[in-house]
Amino acid sequence: MLYGFDDFSSRRRTLFLIALAAALVWMIVQFRGRSNAFYSSMSAPGQPAQSASGNLSGSFGALDGDSIIGVPTISAAKIDQVLASYDSPATGKGQVIYDMGIKYGIDPAYCLAFFIHESTAGTRGVATVTMSIGNIRTTPGYEDYQGYRKYPNWEAGIEDWYKLIRNLYIDEWQLTTIQAIIPVYAPPVENDTNNYVETVRTLVNSWRAAGS
């Protein structure tokens, strides 16, 4: 059966509209695919984090908040004073915590605050055996104790925490604030992350306010 002129024009318009719709769908798909490149795969939930945290989740590359990068805001003597107040087995290592902070460009006040929150300055939990200031999960190349890295002395445990935060969290993942770091370091599925952040902030601010 032959189509009349009107039928042919109508069919041609229909085919044109179908082709136009297909082109629009293709353009949308291509645009969405390109835009995904701006998101690091490291921000995907479940991405393995070789750290104390297990799985990586939460904020990635957050710019707002309390940055841990910087010069010391408390003295080595102040660090030892705080450690002694907790009867910490690491008392006397204030200078080590201070010097490592300078070496890795991280304010040592945050290292001390993590230590207190994780194990009450080494007086509770596995840290009493592992000498780990951050209760870091075991990864290949480390001695294991109940799933945590175990160190030969406090100095080694202190430096390993700084290396982890500097090399992985700051340099690789671009996480520079406690608001960005802690949800990864101590995921909400296992920890009260908001409490962790506020504890660290409160401790650091109280030491700074008290002075050396």
Helix-strand layout with pairing:
Elements: H1 5-35, E1 47-48, E2 55-56, H2 76-85, H3 94-104, H4 108-119, H5 127-130, E3 143-145, E4 148-150, H6 154-172, H7 178-185, H8 193-210
Antiparallel strand pairs: 1-2, 3-4
Short account of what is shown:
The chain is mainly alpha-helical and about 210 residues long. Helices cover about 55% and strands about 5% of the residues.
What does this structure look like?
The chain is mainly α and 212 residues long. It contains eight helices and four strands, in the order αββααααββααα. The protein has helices spanning 5-35, 76-85, 94-104, 108-119, 127-130, 154-172, 178-185, 193-210; strands at residues 47-48, 55-56, 143-145, 148-150. A two-stranded antiparallel ribbon has the order 1-2. A two-stranded antiparallel sheet has the order 3-4. The chain is elongated.
Percent of residues in helical segments? 40-55%
With helices defined by DSSP (H or I, 4 residues minimum), what is the helix count?
8
The whole-number mean of residue pLDDT values reads 80
Helix-strand sequence: HEEHHHHEEHHH
Uncertain residue ranges = 1-8, 28-63
For the terminal residues, how far apart are their CA atoms?
97 Å
Radius of gyration, taken over Cα atoms and rounded to an integer in Å:
26 Å
Instruction: Kindly estimate the percentage of residues that lie in beta strands according to DSSP.
Output: under 5%
Sheet/helix structural class: mainly alpha
Strand order of the largest sheet: 1-2
Number of strands: 4
Summarize the biggest pleated sheet. 2 strands, antiparallel
Judging from the principal axes of the Cα atoms, what is the shape? elongated
